[in-house]
Amino acid sequence: MELSIDWKVMRGLGCSRYFELIERLDLDAVSANQVVYLLGLNPLLFRFKKVYTDNWGVRRRMTAELLPYAFAHPIRDMDDLRGIRVPDPRKDPLLKAVRKTARYFKGRRAVMLVGRAVFAASWYLCGMERLLESYLLDAELVRALARMVVEYNKELHRLAIEEGADLIVLGDDYAHKSATIMSPQQFREFVLPGLTEVVENIKSRGACCVKHTDGNIWGILEDIVSTGIDGIGPLEPGAGMDLAEVKRAVGDRVCVVGNVDVDLLCRGSAEQVRRATRALIDSVSPGGGHILSSGNSITSAVQPENFRVMVETAHRHGRYPIKSC
Cα separations (Å) of 2 from 113, 217, 322? Predict the structure, then answer.
């Protein structure tokens, strides 16, 4: 499965529609988030209007990539937070996308929603720098933000599951290449409680939950697994997250997802991708508990042929029983 697949890659594989690509490559999960663009937020609509304001008041800029970038934030302090108008989750465009996706794929492929929990949803509202400063200087703001976004996301996930979502992937990123963005202690104080609450809500509604994050998360891996998630990943191989090591550490409790290096998919040869994918299957897949994917998502820089080769290698060599080399 892939969290997102850029339009350029889809066109390079001869597909004009996302659902067509899912069927042609025989992927096991389909992301409702990508369908949002088909329902009125297609980047082509922003050919002349590159910037827009979302339902939270966050200013976002369209880029060459599939997803827009948040660059201006409505909350700086508690006064701003008290004055913000929380949108109605029942009107979130993701719900219409889940409904459309489920109508087409329910029972044949996993209907996936890439959602949020605490960290990313908070920094979208106040900015990354302001949020990290507040971990040290303004705990009241941090906790109030967390409470607000957790309640919204819990309700959004509940509604999405009712509309047919089988799997919620929580997409907040917690780390850079060498360590977490915040200290492990700050993660446990300000992020983990809300994350646990969001995961418990998803599980209680009958859906599965996978936690994705970029970066080196070895310092908080056990904390994340302790929330009750069903899976961890995609994880970033270039940040030291060797998936075989992750499976040895926590694979008795969670499924692992990933992680063919996106950089390799962008700049490597088809044969290099084939070998890397086969090596990943041989080292991680035996015994089950492995969903193969890229180490993040399929960006516009990924060579379409490399993506196709990765998927075909999985179909060819990922049939059980799989024996370790």
Answer: 11, 20, 22
Among 107, 99, 114, smallest CA distance to 39 is for: 99
Task: Inform me whether the pLDDT recorded for 42 exceeds 90.
Answer: no
Dump pLDDT digits (tens) for 296-322: 999 999 999 999 999 999 999 998 888
- CA-CA distance, 189 to 194, in Å (whole number)? 10
8 A C-beta contact, residue 288 and residue 324: no
* β-pair type (29-31, 51-53): unpaired
Non-local (6+) Cβ contacts of 23 within 8 A are none
Report the distance separating Cα 304 and Cα 250, nearest Å: 33
State the average pLDDT over residues 105-117: 97
Q: What's the domain range around 16?
A: 7-250
The answer to the question of residue 55 being in a domain is yes
Number of structural domains (the chain) is: 1
- DSSP secondary structure, 104-120, as one string: HHTTTSEEEEEE--SHH
Strand spans (E) along 116-215: 167-170, 208-211
Predicted local distance difference test score (pLDDT) of residue 158: 98
Residue type, 190: F
C-beta of residue 293 within 8 angstroms of C-beta of residue 251 = no
